[in-house]
Amino acid sequence: MTSPQPVTELFWAYWKTKTMLSAIELGVFTELAKEPLRGDELAGRLGLGPGAVGDFLDALVALDLLDRTGDVYANAPAAGEYLDAGKPATYLGDSYLTQCAGLADDLTGVLRTGEALRGARTGRDFYADMYATSNSVRAFQRDMTALSIGSARVIAESFPWDGYHSLADIGTSEGALPGRILLRHPHLTAVGFDLPQAREGFEEYTGALGVADRMSFMPGDFFRDELPSADVLVFGHILHNWGLEEKRLLLDKAYRALPEGGAVLIYETLIDGDRRSNAVGLILSLMMHLEVPGGFDYTGPECQEWLREAGFRKTRVEHLDGPESMIIGFK
Q1: Active site residue: 187, 240, 289, 319, which one?
Q2: Rounded-to-integer distance, Cα 33 and Cα 23, Å
Q3: Are 310 and 254 in contact (CB under 8 A)?
Q4: For labelling alongside 107, which of 14, 21, 264, 301 has CA 20 to 30 A away?
């Protein structure tokens, strides 16, 4: 199985472009051409809403459009020359806005109002919308497979599966990750845990992979129900959908569900510790503000601290594929 990076990098190029366009529309570069500003000062001058500004500005840093010293932002040289509307001889922003008209309207709107799309107030509102019809469930499941398939390829090879016999994938969607792992490791069995509406897509996908005889679907709500017991529990692109309290609750539940010697495996597009280099991690966190109020992406050390608080005795972070990494906690 080859890496999907040549394909997924083009998808993220779309989101990088949206982030730049929103900054042009909002006048970020033109305002910072006057003087460097703290994030809160810039948000006040531009009339931006609460919540998403930090991830937005740091994403622009990671895209090499802004510089940051402490908490003060300034234009990077190229942005200062070509994206400042006060320099008509070199300004390119109007051309980009014309060629990509409407592309960033949703992101710009959320940054201005601080309110998520579709009126969502919590992650539960988002999932109620995504799981409302069979068509929306299947579309969402396909999106999750597209987001996870690169990590699934590496996790199947790099995690020490020979020392375990079972896994449970929490928020499994179609079951892409456990399915790929079972293809590589015939001794394993797996449970996919998700809301009941995900069953049909899960059974269709795992059946097509040829692993349905070693995988079962368990319906449930991970906030209301206890997690399934297995040697390894997996959270793939789950924790970033929720606030800090919910993140800690899920890790506490994972600790209780695991046997001694078990492990929890979390894979996400982690934000780098300096919030300067992994633009995709910051953009994904920005997307959480767009769709899942309260959710946010995080760094590896932050997640390791949450795991230690939950009782896990040993933790480590490993890079996977492209911008993705995994954090492992051992009980």
Answers
A1: 240
A2: 13
A3: yes
A4: 301
